[in-house]
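Dear colleague,

Thank you for sharing your sequence with our group. We've completed the structure prediction you requested, and as agreed, I am returning the results in plain text so they can be pasted directly into your records. Please verify that the sequence below matches your submission; if there's any discrepancy, let me know and we will rerun it promptly.
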Amino acid sequence: MLQRLRRPEILLLLLAASMPLSFSVWNTLLNNFVIAKASFTGADIGLLQSVREIPGFLAFTVIFVLLLIREQRLALLSLIATGVGVMLTGFFPSISGLLLTTLLMSIGFHFYETLQTSLALQWFPKQTSAIWMGRMAAAGSFAALLAYGLVWCLMNLAGLDYSWVYLIGGGTTVLVALVAWILFPQFPQPHSQRKQLVVRKRYWLYYVLTMMSGARRQIFIVFAGFLMVEKFGYSVGEIAALYTVNHLLNLYIAPKIGQFIVRFGERRILTLEYFGLILVFAGYALVESAVLAAALYVIDHLFFSMAIAIKTYFQKIVDERDIAASAGVSFTINHIAAVVIPVLFGLLWLTSPAMVFFAGSLMALVSLGLAQLVPEQPGPGNEARLGQRVAAT
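Please find the predicted C-alpha cells below.
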C-alpha cells in the first residue's frame, strides 16, 4: 500500500497541502497581529508585503541553486525554510523584526512555489495536468481549513498568544517536509532541464499574463484583507471564518475548474476570470456593507483557481527542457508588479482606498484583452493569436 502511494503525483499533493499549514496561519493572523502588536499603518503593511515579494522577484536565481541540489530536494528545503520563518514571526513584533522573519519565510515560499510549478509541469501529462493541478489546489484548501481551525481553537478556546500559534503552524510544515524527505524516493525527471536562464520571444504572452496575474494577486492579498480589518473591524476569528468559507468552496470548485480547462480551453476560462474580477474590484471600491464585502472576498478567492489555465497554456507551448528555468523566470516576472504595488498602493491607500481597487479593475480589463490572444489550440509555433507565429527558437 505504501509503495503504491510513493508516486510523484502523491508527493506533489502532499507538498501542496504542507505549505498552507504554515502560510495560512501567517496570513490569517497578519493584519490583526501587525495592528495589535506593532501598530502598523497602511503604509507599513504595504512595505512589509513588498519585502515579502522581493524573493519572488529573485526567483530566477533558483536555477543556479539547481546546479548544486536536485529540484525535489530543494523543494523540501524550501518548505522547511518557510516553516521556520513562520515559527519565528510571533517573537518579533516590530517593523524590523517582521521584515526579517517575513524575508526568511518568503525565500522558502517563493522558491517552493517555483519548484512546485516546475515539477508539476514535468511530471503531469499535458492532457490531464489541469485536473491534477485542480486537485493540488483542493489539497491546499483542505490543509488551509485545518490551519484555520487550528487558529480558531488555539486563540479562541485555548487562549494562546500569537507567538504560540505561529510556532505551531510553522512547525507543522517543517514536520511534514521532513516526513516527505524520508518516505519518498528521488523521482527521475522526464527531460533533462537547462541549467541557465531562458527567456524566449515566443513565450511573450505567457510572460505578460503572468505579470498581470501577480499584480492582481497583490490587490487581494494585501489590500482586500486589510480592508476587512481596517474598515469593517473584522476580528481574527472572523477573518479565519472567511478563509474557511473560501477553502470549503475551493475543495469542490478547484477540481471542477481543472476539468473545465480541459473541456473548454484556457482562453474561455481566463476570459471568465478577468471579466469577473473587473466587477469584484469595483465592488471593493464602492462597498459599505461588511456582509457584502465578505461576499466579494469569497468570490474573489474563487477566481484564483482559474489561474491554473495560465500554467497549462504554458505547458502546451514550452520546450520541455525549458520548464525549470522558465518557472524561475516567470516567477520573477510575476513579481515585478508585486514588489512595487504594495508600497505605491499603500501610499495611495492613505489618500483613497477606493482608488486602489479601481486600479485593480483596470488591471483586470487589461488582462481580459490579453486573454483573447490565447489560441484555441496552443502549441509550439502557435503561442498567440496575432496572425503571425513566432519561430520556435
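Summary note from our side: Confidence is low (pLDDT under 50) at residues 387-393.

Kind regards,
the structure core
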